[in-house]
Amino acid sequence: MVEITSPSTFQKDLKEKFNLYERVGVHEYWIVYPEENTICVFHLTHEGKYGRPEVYTEQDSINVGIFADFTIELPEVFA
User: Considering only Cβ atoms within 10 Å of each terminal Cβ, which end of the chain, N or C, has fewer?
Assistant: First the structure.
């Protein structure tokens, strides 16, 4: 699941949707902060909770956890 934040939905994205996706077992949840060129990636633990996020910036690449051979180059995304 990928959420792109905006000022009008920021609270909903960080509280309601985060808790909903965790509760229903979404394995990987990305929150994109376009103004900061940053992405936080949450992974569901064995206990069914999201751990601390992995934080990526515009110079990084992200290996998509649910697809073994899929990498997203963030310099291209944020260009």
Answer: C
